[in-house]
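A.,

Following up on our hallway conversation. Structure tokens first:
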């Protein structure tokens, strides 16, 4: 039950983050879709408890592996957004892979959201790995 709940929360967060970056437009230079990262960070944080407490960390780790690719993308995007915002590049230029948009004004906040989001995603995955290592050391069945 815990593994299912944790994975469902984690994958909802992953899907939401993917959609926030890849679906939408920057109408009039508005990149507010990046606020969706807040919801993903909350979902990842909620996933941490059941994933850490699961009695089947091997299964959880195997099922989290595909989502790791998205979390890698989130991390990369967060760092790209941080560098872009520090250089005065609008978030929409980064999102739409073009130039000419005006500064949204919240680029630094977006960068912080996406860096926190990716950090929480890695913490959730790390908790599964630490649970797995702990169970292996104690000779428990991994499931």
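Then the amino acids I'd put at each of the 143 positions:
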């Amino acid at each position: 039950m815990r593994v299912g709940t944790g994975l469902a929360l984690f994958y909802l967060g992953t899907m939401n983050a993917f959609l926030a970056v890849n679906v939408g437009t920057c109408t009039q230079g508005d990149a507010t879709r990046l606020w969706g990262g807040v919801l993903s960070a909350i979902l990842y944080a909620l996933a941490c408890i059941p994933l850490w407490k699961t009695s089947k960390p091997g299964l959880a780790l195997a099922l989290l592996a595909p989502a790791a690719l998205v979390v890698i993308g989130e991390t990369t995007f967060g760092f790209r957004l941080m560098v872009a915002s520090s250089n005065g590049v609008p978030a929409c230029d980064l999102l739409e892979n073009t130039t000419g948009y005006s500064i949204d004004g919240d680029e630094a906040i977006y960068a912080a959201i996406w860096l926190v989001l990716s950090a929480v995603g890695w913490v959730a995955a790390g908790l599964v790995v630490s649970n797995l290592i702990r169970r292996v050391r104690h000779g428990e069945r991994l499931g």
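The mean pLDDT is 90. Curious whether your intuition agrees with the design.

B.
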